[in-house]
UniProtKB/TrEMBL annotation:
GO terms for biological process: proteolysis. Keywords: Hydrolase, Membrane, Metal-binding, Metalloprotease, Protease, Transmembrane, Transmembrane helix, Zinc. InterPro entries: Peptidase_M50. This is Peptidase m50. The lineage of its organism: Bacteria, Bacillati, Actinomycetota, Actinomycetes, Actinomycetales. The keyword Coiled coil does not apply. It is found in: Membrane. Residues 147-201 form the Peptidase M50 domain. Pfam families: Peptidase_M50 (PF02163). It comes from Actinomyces glycerinitolerans. One of its GO terms (cellular component) is membrane.
Length: 371
């Protein structure tokens, strides 16, 4: 691990790099952290009756920070297993309620490797739960015990929930990959996991909303907010994968080639000023290549950010020195219909551009709408 000064971007903060992959955190995590801290404070204060407010606040802060570290360990586990199986992680994104690990391309990747990579994260959380549970009796003080107890059960929740067989949870990705491995049909795996996702949403609604109402109780506001925050991305992902709603008809008419912008392919030693000229001439994206190998990309916003950071002479800097790794999810050979829409949606999570490849050559790039 190589530490670096935290670099702030408009949409995330880069904390450091691990194996060349940036580890970024979303600013919205701070808001969620404050929400969780506010909801936990009365419980911790009650458990630590007799302790000063400063100690109670410190215990809450340590617990929230521990949750962030647990999420980080979860994502690093995905990356480590993926790397061991032949697919290098290129970006880690952390949120207080979860994260995302993006991988580079691999020519020999198989669905069963996705099963192992997906389940690695929940497995680490369950391991942390087991270790924490075994060490609780050794806590040196009540505040340490309260923080350790909370983190122990948070890791159990993270492990069990993420292992549920519904998209976009880790268990859902593992189920989709397993079905694909057994049947050879990727679309079938996605649909099976999407049905699992809708089942998870029904379970969330029952546990936190319907069951209390049927018991004559009123669900508390925090439980309702948490249920909506957790269920919404699961429901929307599953709904989209199953092709429900009007969006499916629009996707059937989609042709990415009609939306494509030109791509300029340059060598790694090309001066940065030449890349600027290509972008000014109308290219949407500059693709940096070394023969047949793609090294990375550079677009207008990235170049503008570099220029604002105070670059030295642009004629002395090469594109190979400043280009960004192109994630595998930002490349597609699917040009039309629902597969093209799915490719665009996947690319939106990792890149501002989706690169189109036809007949083994790059034919254009489509803006994904990501910042």
């Amino acid at each position: 691990m190589t530490a670096s000064a935290a670099r702030r971007r408009s949409d995330s903060w880069t904390l450091f790099t691990l194996g060349g992959a940036p580890v970024v955190v979303a600013p919205t995590s701070l808001l969620l952290g404050l929400l969780i801290a506010g909801s936990w404070y009365p419980l911790v204060s009650s458990a630590l009756a007799g302790y000063s407010p400063a100690i109670v606040l410190g215990t809450v802060a340590a617990t929230v920070l521990g949750v962030g570290v647990s999420v980080m360990c979860h994502e690093f586990a995905h990356g480590a297993v993926g790397a061991l199986l032949g697919r290098r992680p290129v970006r880690y994104e952390l949120y207080l309620w979860g994260g995302r690990t993006s991988f580079g391309p691999s020519s020999r990747w198989r669905p069963w490797k996705d099963v192992l990579t997906s389940l690695a994260g929940p497995a680490v959380n369950l391991a942390l739960w087991a270790v924490g549970h075994g060490l609780l009796d050794r806590a040196s003080s009540a505040p340490v015990y309260v923080a350790a107890w909370a983190l122990t059960w948070v890791n159990l929740a993270l492990g069990v929930f993420n292992a549920l067989p519904g998209l976009p949870l880790d268990g859902g990705h593992a189920l989709a990959a397993l079905v694909e491995q057994l049947s050879g049909r990727r679309r079938m795996g996605q649909r099976v996991a999407a049905v699992g996702g809708l089942a998870v949403v029904v379970g969330i609604a029952w546990r936190w909303v319907l069951a209390p109402l049927l018991a004559g109780a009123r669900p508390d506001s925090f439980s309702l907010i948490l249920a909506v925050m957790v269920a919404w991305p699961i429901a929307t992902t599953s709904w989209r994968v199953l092709g429900l709603g009007r969006g499916t008809r629009a996707a059937a008419r989609l042709d990415l080639r009609a939306l494509a912008r030109p791509v300029a392919v340059v060598g790694a030693e090309t001066p940065l000023v030449a890349a600027r000229e290509q972008l000014d001439a109308g290219a949407g994206l500059v693709l940096v290549a070394d023969g047949a190998r793609i090294l990375g990309t550079l677009d207008g916003p990235a170049l503008a950010e570099l220029e604002r950071s105070g670059l030295p002479d642009a004629t002395a800097v090469t594109v190979g020195q400043v280009c960004t790794v192109l994630p595998a999810a930002a490349v597609t050979t699917q040009m039309t219909g629902q597969p093209a829409a799915d490719a665009l949606a996947r690319a939106r999570t990792v890149s501002r551009w989706l690169v189109l490849v036809e007949g083994g050559r790059v034919t254009g790039t489509v803006p994904t709408g990501a910042r």
